[in-house]
Amino acid sequence: MDKRTCDSQDVEVRKGPWTMEEDLILINYIANHGEGVWNSLARSAGLKRTGKSCRLRWLNYLRPDVRRGNITPEEQLLIMELHAKWGNRWSKIAKHLPGRTDNEIKNFWRTRIQKHIKQAENMNRLSSNISEHNNIQQASTSQTSTNLADSIETYSGNNNNNNNNNNMGTTFHHQGNFPNENIWSMEDLWSIQLLNDANN
DNA sequence: AATAGGGTCAACCGCGTTCTT
DNA sequence: TAAGAACGCGGTTGACCCTAT
């Protein structure tokens, strides 16, 4: 099978960040026709995007039940628990965190947890080296989890302070050198959508 | 004030699986 | 049953932002 022709039909395919217009088209189309059959959806809606891209945009961002904002400490613990159980099965883990997407959890794990695990491991290595020198046996696993828990707690506190940096919450700060390079929120998009519906 | 480096996250890519014909 | 199409997942990338220097 030729993967190149899988999603596109040799028509111009747009890539990169989605514009507000594209978002509106997608929301509007799905509101009227429902989701699924993404390739034909992309074509029918007049979007110069692959079905894959539309699906991803919808699932990770436009769906009304997508929860945005900081991962709570409870969610962090759950993620850690489930990851310990299932490994990198992000979509499986995401199913247990309502409103969270696999992409979000994956990013969270890679950027936050993994970093702290590494730090904890380094500390552990360091402490075990010291232990060897001092002939003191350390319980490494409990130490690691304590360090990790501490790190995560530290992260939670810091993250609140960083809230205004990444514009999470409900507001999306659109980035990139594309037209419509502005700031809009999901509330904006959905209210426009509702207006469209009212006019139809 | 400039900029290098690191963090974050949306989006893309490749591939395995499932569905359809 | 086979082949093609679509879906779904996990890994990776690239652009932007923030902070430290």
Automatic annotation (TrEMBL):
<feature type="compositionally biased region" description="Low complexity">
    <location>
        <begin position="158"/>
        <end position="167"/>
    </location>
</feature>
<feature type="domain" description="HTH myb-type">
    <location>
        <begin position="10"/>
        <end position="62"/>
    </location>
</feature>
<dbReference type="GO" id="GO:0003700">
    <property type="term" value="F:DNA-binding transcription factor activity"/>
</dbReference>
<keyword id="KW-0539">Nucleus</keyword>
<keyword id="KW-0805">Transcription regulation</keyword>
<feature type="region of interest" description="Disordered">
    <location>
        <begin position="152"/>
        <end position="174"/>
    </location>
</feature>
<feature type="domain" description="HTH myb-type">
    <location>
        <begin position="63"/>
        <end position="117"/>
    </location>
</feature>
<dbReference type="GO" id="GO:0005634">
    <property type="term" value="C:nucleus"/>
</dbReference>
<dbReference type="InterPro" id="IPR001005">
    <property type="entry name" value="SANT/Myb"/>
</dbReference>
<feature type="domain" description="Myb-like">
    <location>
        <begin position="63"/>
        <end position="113"/>
    </location>
</feature>
<dbReference type="InterPro" id="IPR044676">
    <property type="entry name" value="EOBI/EOBII-like_plant"/>
</dbReference>
<dbReference type="GO" id="GO:0007623">
    <property type="term" value="P:circadian rhythm"/>
</dbReference>
<dbReference type="GO" id="GO:0010597">
    <property type="term" value="P:green leaf volatile biosynthetic process"/>
</dbReference>
<keyword id="KW-0238">DNA-binding</keyword>
<feature type="domain" description="Myb-like">
    <location>
        <begin position="10"/>
        <end position="62"/>
    </location>
</feature>
<protein>
    <recommendedName>
        <fullName>MYB transcription factor</fullName>
    </recommendedName>
</protein>
<keyword id="KW-0677">Repeat</keyword>
<dbReference type="GO" id="GO:2000762">
    <property type="term" value="P:regulation of phenylpropanoid metabolic process"/>
</dbReference>
<dbReference type="InterPro" id="IPR009057">
    <property type="entry name" value="Homeodomain-like_sf"/>
</dbReference>
<dbReference type="InterPro" id="IPR017930">
    <property type="entry name" value="Myb_dom"/>
</dbReference>
<dbReference type="GO" id="GO:0000976">
    <property type="term" value="F:transcription cis-regulatory region binding"/>
</dbReference>
<keyword id="KW-0804">Transcription</keyword>
<dbReference type="Pfam" id="PF00249">
    <property type="entry name" value="Myb_DNA-binding"/>
</dbReference>
